[in-house]
Design brief:
alpha+beta, 20-stranded antiparallel beta sheet, 24 strands, two-stranded antiparallel ribbon, single chain
Length: 552
Amino acid sequence: MPSIPQITQVDPASFPDSKFDIGLPIISSVYGSIFNTGFSIGDIFYQNADGIMMPDVDNAIAKMSSENFFVLNGSTDLIFVGFKKGNNFFSLNVTEKLDFTFNYPKDLIVLALEGNGNKLLGKRASLDGLGFDFTHWREYAIHWVHDVHHKFSYGARLKYLYGMENFTTDVSYMGIRTDENTHALKFDMAFNFRTSGLPQILLDDGNIPVIGGLNTNDSTVMQESGFSPGYINNYLFNRKNRGVGLDFGFNYHLNDKLLLEASVLDLGFINWNSYTANSKLEAWNYEYDGIDTPISIFGEGSSVDFLKGVLEDSIEEDLKNNYSYSTQSYKTALRTKAYASMEYTVDHNNFVSLSLYSSFSRGIWRRGLGLAYNYHLGNFLSATASYSLYNRSYANVGFGVSVNLGPVEIYCLTDNILAFGTLNPRDNFLSNSSNSLNIDTKKVRNGQIHFGLNLTFGREEKEKPLEEENEASSASSDGEAQSKDSSTKMKKPSNSSSSSKSNDTKKTKDDSNSSYNKKTKKKKNTRRGELKTKVEQSAPKSSTLRKVSRNL
């Protein structure tokens, strides 16, 4: 929505509608999103004959792909200031950000719900790709946009990144196979995950560190990390996790109706140096085919404990030989995103756009397609509606509105308004009563919301199309021509009255009138119908081109 100053954070080459913007701390831009590619809430529940909500595990599993994602994102602007100067726009922002991605294979859900029998008996239960990435960081950014004759604009945002916590899964593959005859178990596994700023977790009675590099039992470490009372500044500003990032884009007007836009966001990295840990398991293969001496699982329970102890000791010893732990520094990349869109201007109030979106995470490109309509009512109201396909979901209907009350701008928009139906699943998923929503929310897999409050000053009046300006100019020119013609006719009686005066002055008057009449005849309108003067176009055609994007 181009009426809000935060449009530049999605489209770095776009100009906001206002000349000077101030974002109120925290509440100027609050963003949150949730995506699940595996299944929707409607896939895991059904209504039985008695009207009771029941889980439908088989249907949920059938909807999954072999590899699925669960994503959470959040951000808020702590500081935002922007202003126009000539053909340039400058802005400064400080933004707190969170990014969480959980990769889960389909066989993980099958194994958890059904065990290693049934569908997985005699097959390798693949847990390849299992892992999650989490990053909490702060962004300090300066932004610049330049406009070239309202025809072409380009912009970039340079960002300094301050990292606070991170969990990264670099390598993850795991398989479990149960022999269909002997029920022997075969394991194959390897993983490599790194962390920064997370508490340390120990196994084997505190002898083996597994996750995290922050020792919570050391008071000095707790103070330096900022987790002790009175030392919060060490957490907020003094960690040694630094990086850089870049956003860039351009807008190009093919003509006064068609606008092309493209941008790349979050191209960058963070170096993690504080409280780091690297946990690595080399390629590990293990087979357990039972115990040679048969034991009874009945009795007083000691045989069960013995079996459990043998299995655990055998696996644990083998794992230790392949596992390593270190505290070396490391680097992670941001989740890079790319946008491309084409917008058609219907008139100065209505715009239609087609957008392509892609995001790169854990070596996989995720893509989306969206169609949006934008409406503007002067500087008071802007509204948008959209439909999009992304994250293996077709149920994404967006809506947004921005209202300006003097310098105060309030806005709220979402990529999928259907997601709000998930807040009342019994009514909106299962009930056919009149109190439920009259929309199908059973396929909803994505939810997103963005809202805030800004102070904006110096909004420009919306420009009218060139055709309307020409019509107004023509009407004004016609009025001037008619006025001149009327004044010419009104002068004729004064010329005829001069013949009644004395003969001494008649000759002088006649000479004067003759000269005057000759000039009048040259200006006299001899055409039939309305006289129209030719008016040259005073404004260049490119003046109707906008500086801003009209995408959602």
